[in-house]
Amino acid sequence: MIDVINLQKSFGSNQVLKGIDIKIEKGDIMCVIGPSGSGKSTFLRCLNCMEDPTGGQIIFNGVDIADFKVDINIHRRHMGMVFQHFNLFNNKTVIQNIMLAPVLVGLQDLKKAKRQNSFIKLTNLLRSSKMKKDLVAITTSKAEIKQQAKENAMALLNRIGLADKADVYPSTLSGGQKQRVAIVRALAMNPDVILFDEPTSALDPEMVGEVLDLMKQLAKEGMTMIIVTHEMGFAREVANRVLFIDDGQILESAPPAEFFGNPKNPRLKEFLSKVL
Q1: Separation CA 147–CA 187 (nearest Å)
Q2: What H or E segment, with its residue span, contains residue 57?
Q3: What's phi and psi for 70, nearest 5 deg?
Q4: Segment 5-46, tens digit of pLDDT
Q5: Sheet holding 241-246: strands in order across?
């Protein structure tokens, strides 16, 4: 699904990523661990070009999304993102947060189809009857797009047990509730992959479990996930592959049993001795 080739990222003279090469297959649950400042979050943010790579390629579903000529927003529709600090819009209710992207994208597509039809109608005036082009099929309306997004949002809130919070504002939610809403907001776009940037590090310890339980459910359902995390127990239990990044490089990549039970890289051994 994602093929990362010689990914590099510099901020001025500071080279944060120094040639990352990794393949992510459909259904992978990949946990990325490493010390603070090692480049983990930068790596994740480069995957959907929230940070523009300095060099290398990111082939996502057959397209190099690191190419500046590519419309990254088209591809971001298929790549969800969950942030450390939730990034919910505090001036919108919970359900409005979840509906926002599906409605925006749906209305953009509807507007594009209508523009195409206007152009086709105009050019058809200059064509012979045999050369006239068919109009683009429009099977929905603005009202239907919003209604479908609302129904889907309510279904997602029911899934996480927060349907009663649909019309409240994020400021009234606990940290664990905010992060679960942020996860289903990403799910609302039906993505191919979800990127998680330390999703539990801003939570009180008692709230971590409810977020990890939801992520475990997604893993069982086959969602492709790339997770920057400090939760070693979660990585050991859920991941099918664990990466260790330090100083902008992947120093080890292995299944969790081998990664934690028989680490080979000396720096990884040192790191694990301090965190386990």
Answers
A1: 17
A2: strand 55-60
A3: -85, 140
A4: 999 999 999 999 999 999 999 999 999 999 999 999 999 999
A5: 79-82, 193-197, 224-228, 29-33, 241-246, 249-254
Task: Dig out the tokens for 83 from the structure.
Answer: 């942030």
What gap in Å lies between CA 147 and CA 7, rounded to an integer? 41
Sign of CA dihedral 274, 175, 38, 77: positive
| Residues 183, 36: Cα–Cα separation, whole Å | 24
* Dihedral pair phi/psi, residue 51, rounded to 5°: -115, 125
- For 226, half-sphere exposure in the C-beta direction (CA atoms, 13 angstrom radius) is 26
Q: Map tokens 């039970």 to a residue.
A: 261
φ, ψ of residue 162 to 5 degrees: the values are -125, 25
Three-state DSSP state, 178: helix
Query: Which residues have C-beta within 8 Å of that of residue 23, sequence separation ≥ 6?
Result: 2, 3, 4
Whether 197 and 81 have beta carbons less than 8 Å apart is answered as: yes
The model's pTM:
0.91
* CA distances from residue 102 to 52, 150, 153, 189 in whole angstroms, order as listed: 25, 9, 10, 6
